[in-house]
């Protein structure tokens, strides 16, 4: 059987009051410091609230750009489908694209090139 000598055991209640108050203050100060540190890192860290807002803004911007690109793709797909052989406007559309993009003209057309007098 183990016996303790009660004289050697320091009772917490027997400590002087100023030591207990100092201990309470030290623990409180440590806890407040830890809370402020945690709050600061929650807001400003690389995975914090500010970074989250920035990423959400970037997602919204990219979604808008994606929708714009999708609309452009649909318009281009429609234009490509008009080039199919089943279309009645096929020849006119091909002729228009060749004239606009490649600068060709038909044999029955006459092309006049006007020179600017300042470019002699």
Structural notes for this entry:
This protein is mainly α. The protein has one domain (12-119). The termini are far apart. 62% of the residues lie in helices and 0% in strands.
What's a concise summary of this model?
It is built from three helices and no strands. With 120 residues, the protein is mainly alpha-helical. The chain has one domain (12-119).
What is the molecular shape?
rod-shaped
Strand content: under 5%
Rg to the nearest angstrom? 41 Å
How many strand segments?
A: 0
Biggest β-sheet: count, sense, barrel? Answer: none
Q: Which structural class fits the helix and strand makeup?
A: mainly alpha
Q: How do the SSEs run, as a string of H and E?
A: HHH
Whole-number mean pLDDT: 79
How many structural domains are formed by the residues?
A: 1
| N-C termini distance | 120 Å
Instruction: State the helical fraction.
Output: 55-70%
Parts with pLDDT < 50 across at least 5 consecutive residues: none
Alpha plus pi helix count: 3
Name its key features.
mainly alpha, 3 helices, 62% helix, 0% strand, rod-shaped
Task: Describe how the helices and strands are arranged.
Elements: H1 17-44, H2 49-81, H3 90-102
